[in-house]
Structures are given as structure tokens and as C-alpha cells.
Amino acid sequence: MLEIKGLSINYGGIEAVRDISFVVPSGQIVTLVGANGAGKSSTLRSIIGLVKAKSGSIKLAGKELMGSSTDEIVRNGITLVPEGRHVFPDQTVLENLKIGAYLRKGNLDEDIEKVYSIFPRLKERSWQAAGTLSGGEQQMLAVGRALMANPKLIMMDEPSLGLAPIIVNEIFEIIKRVNEVGTTVLLVEQNANMALHVADKAYVIENGRITIEGTGKELLKDERVKKAYLGTTA
Amino acid sequence: MKVKEKRNLILSIVAVLLCCLYLFILESDSVVHSYAITIIERSCIYAVAAVSMNLIIGFTGQFSLGTAGFMCIGAYITGVLTIPVEMRDQIFYLYGMASWLHDIKLPLIVTLILCAVVCAGIAALIGWPVLRLKSDYLAIATLGFSEIIRAIFGWDGLGKITNASYGVSNIPEFKSIFECVIISAVCIVIMILLVNSSYGRAFKAIRDDDVAAEAMGINLFRTKQLSFVVTSAFAGVAGGLLAVYMRSAVTSTFTVALTYNILLMVVLGGIGSISGSILGAFIVTGSQEWLRFLDREYTWSELIPGIGNTGFGAMNVPLLRNGFRMVVFSLLLMLVVLFWNHGLTGSKEITWDRLINGAKKLMRSKKEKAVSEAE
User: Where are the transmembrane segments (chain B) (predicted)?
Assistant: First the structure.
């Protein structure tokens, strides 16, 4: 579905991402794992147009999106759950969800119900200000908000960041559920262990380059990945 | 839920009818009630300005202070296009009115729409560079713009159109109080509709978190631009109304102080609350009048009956003299800011539910007090 070819991103003269290529097949969960500063978030941000890439091609279902503005890209069916959740704290859960559907016209009730069915907790709190939710609930809201745009592809930037381990498990359950209802997921994670367990396909990014790729299971067994990211040695 | 909605609708209709009734009473004898009429007209005009300013500051989170400049544009457009043709030579005796403009006279409504359109156009132009700035820098740039406008309208070179520093006078006044109130109400209703639309949600999203807003596909620049254009258009209308109210348009009215005065109404009422801005406009305008008694000098005998006009009774009450009103007003403001530091209404709107719940709470606490006292 999403095809990235030769993507390079520069930040003020520093090459954050160098000539990376990968594919996200329709209906799958694909993850990019790597250390801090490896270029994972930059990749996501350039796919959605928040950062302009230097060169390369970004194709969604055959359509070139390189150089398009963020609103066009969202309209084409890609949404981003930003790192650190970024919910609108003073607005209610319901209002947050409605903003997610900003670019769509028409009746939202059905879609809101759909999001509530995935996240029953959000329904209970629909009138609460988003800032009063717990970290895990805010992450659910951020995902729900991104789903309101009816995306073909949802990209999540470090959804487990700053959450308690038990909540992290819950978040990964949610990622699986979102995928099951038919949305393709591109996941960026530092928590390689969890990410590789849910991923159909995984890429390891180091210093702006893809160094290892394979299915989630393959990478879990890969010696280099084990050593560098999973903290276990054979 | 349904019952509550019905109740709120009925209450709203009753409130509007009561307001109309009050205005009819004032209108029926406009000479006797002229003081009240001027206060209400002034408050309504400032309410339009305050709500429009709240749109960009409170809802979109962009600290723009160009209101006075746009009001100035509106005031001059209205002034120049509505003064009676036969008086124009007399008003423009120094410069002579430009001949192409001399015989153009438009009805007030048309002029006000023109104000909105012109101000929107100018806002779109200056918004293009200026809205790339953030917070303080945006405030400084728009403040500067506002002063430039004032300088341009006071410039001799434009004397044939604006009458330069003499300004435009003899603008025909409102035909009745309803003209002013209804125009203001329509403006405010349009802005309320905008805030409650998906554009309004986008404004608030940008205010709360521009990173997330952008990721949601909200075009930051275009949305800010929209908010700025609408704000400026209604500031222009408010300026036009103000010119009609004062029956003149002079650049000295539209100083930075005017912008601050409107900002005061917005902050006092509650940033991000339309009903708050309206309340703020009425309170600030009204209390500056109601406190006028403080500007008079009194002797003690006038305040305390039966102490005679000699000795202590003949002495002036300290502090009460011309200008003391503003001292008290400022103190009241400080108290409000101290105790309601999000403004009187906070960022929430005043709704019937809120009012009724508040009244119920008050009744309950009174009852409890009575019970505890009885015990």
C-alpha cells in the first residue's frame, strides 16, 4: 500500500535519514525499530508532510505524495498519532474525536460509535476534558482521533512512550485490534520487543539507514537485533 | 435531555422578548432615556469588537492587537460614505472632497458590508507575512500595523478622501436603538455559528496544540488566516458602528488605548468565551458610567444627613474628585483578575444549565446556612 523509495531527509545540513526504502503492505502491521535519533520519527513526519524530505518517493496505492501538503496527505488516507500523544487537553474527549475528522464532511455519529466500540473507556469519559485522562487513556484518545479521519494507513510514533508496562501491553492489544478492523499500521517503537511481537514485517533503522529487515518473528530471533535492541544474548 | 432543551429554548425566547420589551420602552421616549440608550449602543458596539477580538486571541490563540486599526478603516469608510452630500463641501472645506467620491452616498447596511469586505481584504494581505510570526512578535507587528493605518488616515495627502487630521463629522446617527442592537446581534450570531462549526474546532485545535492540529490535516496558515480575516472584518463593522454612534470618525479615537480597552473586555469576560466577551463589554462600558458619581466632589453634609453645613459638615469628603472613578475602576479590575483569574466566565459559555445550577447551589447553601443557624 505504502511504498517508500530512496527517502532522504536533511535537518540543517545533518542527514537524519539516508536513502531508505521500505514497503507497508495493505492490512499489515509494519514496524520501524531503532535507537534514539536513528531517524524513525523523521521518516514518519516526512511521510505525512510535516517535514520536507530532500529526495525520494512516497507512494500511497500508486499515488505520489512526495511534496504534497499535510492536509492533502491526510485527505489521501494517512494519519499520524504523534509522539507524546498531543491530545487537546482543554477539550472534551468527544471534541477531540471530532477534530480528528476535520477534513471529512458529513455525519460523524457512526464513526464516533465505531471508535467507542474499540475504546469503551473513551465512551465513559466522552464529556471529560482530555487533559484529565490518564496517560494510557490519552494514548487511546490519540489513536481514536487518528481513526476518525477514516485512514487507510495509521502511523503511530512511540505509542508506548512514558506508559507503565501494564498499560503498554494494553496499547499493543489496541494496535492489534485497530489492525484487525482493517487499518494498515506503520509503527515506530523503541520498545523493540513488543513491537516485533505484533509486527508482520519489521525494519531496523540505524543512523538513518535500514540495516536489517524481515518478519517480526525473524527479527526476534536475529542475533544482531537481540544484542542491540532486545537486551538478551544467546 | 429533551425536556431540558425545550426549557432552555423557552427561556432564551423569553429573555430575547424581555430585552426587546426593554428596548421598546427606551425607544418610546428616547429623549428621557437617552443616557441609557447611549450606554446600550456603546456596549453593543464594543461587544462586537470584543467578540471579534476573542475569535483570534481566545479561540485561535494568536495574540493579534490590530483591532483599532481595522476599526479605524471601518469608521472612515462609514463616515465618508454616509454623510449627507449637501454637507460635504462644508466638512471638507480645507481640502475639498475628491470629485469621484463627492456624490457617492450609500445606506448604512451597504456601507457596513463594504467595511467588512475591505477589512477582510486588507487582513488577508497583511496576514500573509504577519501570521508567520508567533505570540509577542505577532502582537508587536499588528500593533504597528494599527498605528500605520492611523497615520495614513491622518495624512494630508489623503485629505481629499479622509479630510486628514480633521476627520469626518456629521455622520447621521442611528435611526433607532434597534438598528444598532440588531446589527450587532447579527454580527455576533454569525461569529457564534463560525465558532461552533468545524472551522471553530480547527481554531481551538491550533490554539491548544499546533503540532497535533497539523497532524490532523488542519492547514495551520490557512486556518489562522481565516480567523484573522473574520476578526478583522467584524472589527471593521464595529468601527463603522462606532463612527455612527459618535457621529464622527477621527484618527485620535483609534489609538492603541482602544485596542487595550477591548482587550480588557475580552480578558475580563473570559478568554475563549463569547458570552464572556459580551458580558465584559457591557460591564466595562457600563461601570465606567455607573461609577461616575465618584467623580463629583461631596461635602460630608451631603452624605450624612443632619450634621449641618458648618465645620466638619462643610469639609469635602477626601478622595472623591474628578478622576477618582478610574482609580476605583482599576481597583475593581484588579480584584476581578485576582479572584477570577480566568475571567468572569472562564473559557466556558454562560448557558441556562449553568445559570440554573448556580442558582440551585446558592439556594441550597442558603438553606443549609438557615438550618445550621436554627440548630
Answer: 9-26, 63-85, 106-131, 137-155, 176-195, 226-246, 258-284, 323-340
